[in-house]
Design a protein that fits this description.
single chain, alpha/beta, Rossmann fold, pyruvate-formate lyase- activating enzyme, OB fold (Dihydrolipoamide Acetyltransferase, E2P), 3 domains, six-stranded parallel β-sheet, 21 strands, 23% strand, binds 5'-deoxyadenosine, binds iron/sulfur cluster
């Protein structure tokens, strides 16, 4: 009987893809089979995130749970971004952990597995061209890495310290992987990188790459994350607007609406640039879905700075908001700033931002009543029904079953709710 692997993934899409890579290596080279039962696992992996303090705390509480519930002799491995930045300290704090594998060392999973106490966290390690085995958690869509690491120096962000220097993957490897995925039935390709629209390889930029992937037979939809507002030049917006295979949802991580704070954050753009790009995008792409990330209470953020963020919210009316209280991170510039904000003010600003966004979102949601979207179905819901994404990124659910999975249908929205638009198939 094969050994069993249990894996928990925290954090972003990049981490989800890294987990798929580790699953692929372990199932195809080491004879493991996946399980969702912790107590029957022979190997327990936790793929960690360190972008805020909370997920780091979660790691140690999870290790405690694993220790109690794991079967005799089962190994525990800590992977991902927290592995990169805490390294052997993890084993010191939690001796039950057998090995530590950094976010940029995923391809070494088979090696560390057989080395008790191994710590592989080299952030200069280049595995951008490593030929991973194949594993995809969804048959309908495929995540494809286009670059690894990040060269931006945003003063709040730990990622450059956990994922290292930015390296773009050669476009022919990307196209090859996307083609293979599409041939096996994944009609949607999700391009991944910390900074996708900074892609540069042998004279090709991100817009060129989008066009190349869109030429692949059987690829019907292309999504990507995360783009940076600084690199949203006119050409990129034109390719985004005009290529029919590119889904019309754009992530535009604002972080702050105050030009002064943006400068402290080292984001490289101003409030005006961001508003200009968002306005242009709305003009060029009717119905475009814009999501964003906002950090409140960055060190030194005044009431006026925060009002600037609220002003951008009013003007752009984001379809989706991910909002966070600033969390000081080790190995970052901003953690050393001496003007940290009182936690109570931070909570109050976060709640004001979220409340206002919920009201905006209610208006956006109501306005979807009666609209018709092209929906690519990919998921059976626990409450019955089948769900998928509209071309512009809304989660849409209809009554139905497996036969809809993997198909694209026209759906009329009959009952729009904040998180899900319910509707009926009309095609
Ligand atoms: N504190 C709070 N939020 C952060 N993010 C990144 N670093 C921090 C931090 N130190 C947020 C940013 C980023 C998202 C992935 O996480 O908004 O876009
Ligand atoms: Fe992803 Fe950043 Fe979290 Fe690493 S720290 S898992 S790159 S969100």
């Amino acid at each position: 009987m094969s050994q069993k692997l249990y894996i928990e993934t925290l954090g972003c899409a990049m981490n989800m893809r890294d987990s798929e890579h580790m699953i692929a290596e372990l199932t195809q080279k080491e004879g493991y089979a996946l399980t969702t039962e912790l107590s029957e696992a022979d190997l327990i992996l936790i793929n960690t995130c360190s972008v805020r303090e909370k997920p780091v705390q979660k790691l140690f509480s999870e290790i405690g749970v694993f220790k109690k519930r794991k079967k005799e002799g089962a190994k525990i491995g800590v992977c991902g971004c927290t592995a990169s930045h805490l390294g052997e300290e993890i084993i010191k704090r939690a001796p039950v952990v057998d090995f530590v594998l950094g976010a940029r060392n995923v391809s070494k999973i088979s090696q560390v597995l057989h080395k008790k106490g191994a710590v592989e966290i080299d952030i200069d390690y280049d595995e951008s061209q490593y030929a991973f085995s194949e594993f995809r958690s969804s048959p309908y869509k495929a995540m494809v890495n286009i670059s690894i690491g990040c060269d931006k120096q945003c003063s709040f962000c730990i990622v450059p310290a956990t994922r290292g220097k930015e390296v773009s993957i050669p476009s022919d490897l990307i196209v090859q992987e996307a083609r293979k995925a599409a041939q096996s039935g994944a009609k949607e390709i999700f391009l991944l990188g910390q900074n996708v629209n900074n892609y540069q390889h042998e004279g090709k930029d991100f817009s060129d790459l989008l066009n190349l992937v869109s030429e692949i037979d059987k690829v019907e939809r292309i999504r990507f994350t995360s783009p940076h507002p600084l690199h949203m030049n006119d050409h990129f917006l034109e390719v985004f607007a005009s290529n029919p295979k590119i889904c019309k949802s754009m992530h535009m991580p604002l972080q702050s609406g105050s030009t002064r704070i943006l400068k402290e954050m080292k984001r490289g753009y101003t409030k005006e640039w961001f508003l200009n790009r968002a306005t242009k995008l709305r003009e060029m792409v009717p119905g475009v879905h814009i999501s964003t990330d906002i950090i409140v209470a960055f060190p030194g953020e005044s009431e006026r700075d925060f009002e600037e963020t609220m002003d951008v919210l009013e003007k752009v009316r984001f379809e989706q908001l991910f909002s966070f209280k600033y969390s000081p991170r080790p190995l970052t510039k901003a953690a050393e700033f001496d003007n940290q904000i009182d936690p109570q003010i931070a909570s109050e600003r976060l709640s004001r931002l979220q409340k206002r966004h919920e009201a905006i979102l209610d208006e956006i949601t109501d306005a979807q009543q009666g609209k018709i979207f092209e929906v690519y179905f990919e998921e059976l819901r626990a409450n019955g029904g089948v769900a998928g994404r509209s071309d512009n990124g809304f989660l849409v659910q209809v009554e139905g079953s497996e036969e809809l999975l993997g198909s694209t249908q026209k759906v009329k929205i009959t009952y729009p709710r904040r998180t899900t638009l319910y509707g009926e198939v009309v095609s």
